[in-house]
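Handout, section 3.2

Students often ask what a structure token actually looks like in practice. Rather than define it abstractly, here is a full record for YbbR-like protein. The first block is the sequence as you would receive it.
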Amino acid sequence: MKTGKSLHAFSIFRNFLSRIVSKEFLIFLFFLVLSGAFWLVMTLNETYEREFSIPLRIVDVPRNVMITSDPDTVVRFTVRDKGYMIAAYATEEAFHPIFIDYKVYTDGKGHGEISAADIQRLIYLQLAKSSKITSVKSGNYTFSFNFGLHKKVPVKLLGKVIPGNNYYLAHVEFIPDSVQVYATRSVLDSIQTVYTSRQHISNFTDVKEITVDLRRFTNAKCIPSKVKMKLFPDVLTEESVEVPIEAINTPADKVMRTFPSKVTLKFVVGAYRMRTMPKNPETRELLPVGFRVVVNYKEVESRHSDKCHLFIQATPNGVRDVRPSVDVVDYLIEQR
């Protein structure tokens, strides 16, 4: 019986305490919300400045006209107004793009310019009467165009490409390998190559394929503006070949002979390039096609030495680090 009375008394006390706490909390919450609303009204009624951006587009461009140099696609400006208007402008869909009529701003001779005053006037059309534009950031609001004049120009790599250890860059392929460049005649005449944006690629051993931007020209436009680039690495191997020694600058009445008459050249080449180099069909030995080693009669004539130096005058494409097995050889000069 005593236990039942104790539980009943505890329940009454808990309900009483809960009513008191709930009442005080609700009162506290009411005043908190009230003070927060008052603070928000006061804050939003203050004057603020904030930077915004608005897209810019050129419209009504004739079909036979190609814009070769676009103006900035975004205009940045600063607005001063009450806080509640600044908050309204901060929403995602507060501003719509500014549309610039091509026919209004072109000079008909390849250029056009949009004045800062016109840009500001078009922005004001989207602002409340109480809002004030305090500044419009300077930018490029000019454009150039032509009437479809263009030419096809090859694409080349700009930058540094270094494959992994014991590999070299055997081949670079672009898809497409050429692009159409639109510009005036004088600008087109000065453009012979379109380069990629500067690349820094290293440490790869398999074929690498990436999409790269093309470098921009002033008052010219490339179509397309991006290309696919494939990099083909190849394994480096060390090879050797016997090459005849030739004498140069020898007078017509003399003959210059060297001992030995051939020299072994060691070099580094990619495995794929090695497979394409000419070989003897019977022995499969590498032929010295594209290699040239010479001795210079004028050097011998001026030095009066019993030996002459070897000079590597030519090597095939793709061959590197070429070095002879000896640097000097014996010689003999005979009268014809």
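Discussion prompt for tutorial groups: Residues 14-42 form one domain. How would you have guessed this from the sequence alone?
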